[in-house]
Design a protein that fits this description.
275 residues; three-stranded antiparallel sheet; 4 helices; globular; binds zinc ion
């Protein structure tokens, strides 16, 4: 097995072997949750070129380096881990693989493609892994809301949780919990929103309390779909952001973070070729 980057961060990525589970909160033996889960998609350098050839690259800093090493957190019990792995991960991985394969292909693609998925389970997968991606259990409202409904298939997804998504044609993995950023970029008088970021090839997800953000597509439009419902969701191939967007700080953005920023990660590669 490859040596993983997370060793660098290990103190922030695990608790004791027996401790409270971040999801069910029971005191149990904890297991490692891979975020993103294994079974997603990987790119060779050549494939990365194909992916980029589909995109308008003028705004993209292609010198940004890359990583697809595993990030993992020892924060949830085996039972919760297995439920995520059996119920949710096939949908999350299928979505990543399917879109990734389209981007890797030499097909001529339109600006917007549609991909069939089960949005209800995709939403649950994203939220479950975000819940695991925190070394300390805390009582952030979002976490309590997620715990209440995550494994209850009849429970609806709370209106306060909105998930946006966009194409992330990079191999860096970014997981950021509980930050505040400007609600409207560049508008310091426009208030702040609360955000969680989960990005890996080929799709990035932003979980926040805002009803919209930067014109991104919203996954929670389908919050009332049933777990088994299959829906064609749009993927905008021309709305491409940089590898560090939206968390990059500059003239148009600022970030405030709490203690879970310690568990956040931007995985940087070791022996990978630069794009
Ligand atoms: Zn548990």
């Amino acid at each position: 097995m490859k040596k993983e980057n997370t060793q660098l961060y290990s103190t922030k990525f695990k608790r004791g072997k027996v401790s409270r589970c971040n999801i069910c909160k029971k005191r149990k033996h904890l297991s490692w949750d891979h975020v993103p889960p294994k079974g997603g998609i990987y790119l060779s350098a050549v494939e990365q070129e194909t992916v980029f050839s589909h995109m308008t690259v003028t705004k993209i800093n292609r010198k940004y380096s890359i990583s697809q090493n595993g990030v993992k957190y020892r924060t949830i019990c085996k039972e919760c881990n297995e439920k995520i792995g059996s119920k949710f991960d096939p949908v999350l991985n299928g979505f990543a693989r399917g879109i990734g394969n389209i981007l890797k292909s030499n097909l001529i693609l339109p600006s917007i493609i549609y991909y069939k998925t089960k949005p209800n389970l995709l939403i649950r997968a994203i939220l479950a892994h975000l819940l695991a991606a925190k070394a300390d259990i805390d009582k952030v409202t979002t976490d309590e809301q997620i715990r209440n409904f995550i494994f209850d298939e009849n429970a609806s997804i709370p209106d306060e949780i909105n998930i946006f998504y966009w194409v992330h044609p990079y191999t860096n993995t970014v997981i950021i919990r509980d930050i505040a950023m400007l609600a409207i970029r560049g508008k310091f008088g426009g208030g702040v929103g609360f955000f969680n970021i989960f990005k890996y090839f080929p799709i990035a997800y932003l979980v926040c309390n805002l009803k919209e953000y930067e014109g991104l597509n919203e996954l929670t439009l389908y919050r009332n779909s049933k777990p088994q419902d299959i829906i064609d969701v749009p993927i905008n191939l021309k709305n491409i952001r940089g590898p560090e967007w939206p968390e990059c700080v500059g003239n148009e953005n600022m970030i405030m973070g709490g203690q879970s920023i310690q568990s956040s990660v931007s995985a940087i590669p070791k022996n990978k070729k630069k794009i």
